Amino acid sequence: MRPILLALLLSPSLSSAESPAPPDPDDTAYPAIERYVQVLETVRREHYDFDKVAYDRLVNHSLEGMLSSLDPFSMFIHPEMAAGMKDGKIDPHVASLGLSLGVRDDGPYLAGIDTHGPAASAGLLAGSAVLKINGAEVKDVPWQELLERLNRPPGETTKLLLKSVAAPKPQEISLTHITVETRSLAESKLLESDKTIGYLRLAQFGDSCAKEMEAALDDLEDQGMKSLIFDLRGNPGGNLDQTVRILGLFLPPSTAVVTTKGRGGVIGEPLKTPDRQRRKREYPITVLIDRMSASASELTSGALQDLNRAKIIGETSYGKGSVQKILPMGGGTALRLTFAHYYTPADRSPHGVGITPDVPVTLTEEDRACFELFRHRESLKPEEAKKLAAWKDPVMAKALGEE
């Protein structure tokens, strides 16, 4: 084994000082590292394409595979990508296509695929190389420009020429952009059928959504609201601080609502609702969730469920309760690494299992399609509006006791 490579792979700078190593027997480390170096040197010696066997390239690509094997949210950030992500200057996520675009030494690639979205529906695989966007070559095109090419209005189509390890030849895939809600508080009203029931739909946990929600609740209460339907369907999550503040609108001051646990146990103090509450809100609450309610949505519905503050209706939620951080590494690279899970007051983590509703509702694909129309009903085509008008929302019906 080459001493320089062995020293590099065993360097303390590549290990975590914050938590103990995995409980592997000590004598398994050296054979595993020796096997890695043996494969590395065999590839360098035997592979026909000399341009692809530089040490930096081989090691970085192997680290990419290592991180992607851990969980859907951990990833190795190549130097070409890390430079653009520094200080958050570039957001690699293209929400309207449900994918994240990365860049490495051989050009752009699909760094991540959302579980739900056009990319997932088309069966795209993370790690696939992007060769062309709408027929145009992408090699050596700046990352920011590539992202601008991919971000298009809803309803438009983007064609990607992709090369994945699962296919012998490049394939051209057409993806239709979907509407992405940019407002946090998407809707606030009293129901026409019963003016004592309020309805709030939160599309995401944005940076000011707690203040928006509090103002909306004040208004609905002043109009005579006696109970609330809080719709978190399709909400992917967002700002954790805003999540805790929103829970503080419905729970007593200084209530512990979120705990973070890593490999070594609890990290820091539990997150608590604000120590002051301007209005007491003791009316009944019903929370609506579906399989796309994730992260902050799950912490919110889970906490209200654990503390017997709300009834949860709908589908089991997505199951995203993990926490990631960016760790700078050598050679201008970085890691986006899952290091902990969030837990609700009853010591439940939604990660991998979701939040199970108190009242489950089975949805058809037709129901899901109509709910998407409902979310974007301001911009529907005539035939879509007609389809939505004929639909009865089974989750809302259950919440209103109509089924």
Notable characteristics:
about 400 residues; alpha+beta; Pdz3 Domain; 2-enoyl-CoA Hydratase, Chain A, domain 1; six-stranded antiparallel β-sheet; six-stranded mixed β-sheet; 12 helices; globular; disordered N terminus
Explain how this protein is built:
With 403 residues, this protein is α+β, with helices and mostly antiparallel strands. Among the domains are: 58-180, Pdz3 Domain (Roll), CATH 2.30.42; 185-322 and 346-360, 2-enoyl-CoA Hydratase, Chain A, domain 1. The chain contains twelve helices and 19 strands. The protein has helices at 3-9, 29-46, 55-68, 79-85, 118-121, 143-150, 209-222, 240-250, 296-306, 365-375, 382-389, 394-399; strands at residues 75-77, 93-94, 99-104, 107-113, 129-133, 136-137, 157-163, 171-176, 185-190, 197-202, 227-231, 256-262, 265-266, 271-272, 285-289, 311-314, 322-328, 334-343, 359-360. Strand 7 and strand 8 form a beta hairpin. Helix 7 (209-222) packs parallel to helix 8 and helix 10 (365-375) crosses helix 11. The longest helix has 18 residues, at 29-46. The termini are far apart. The model is unreliable at 1-17 (pLDDT under 50).
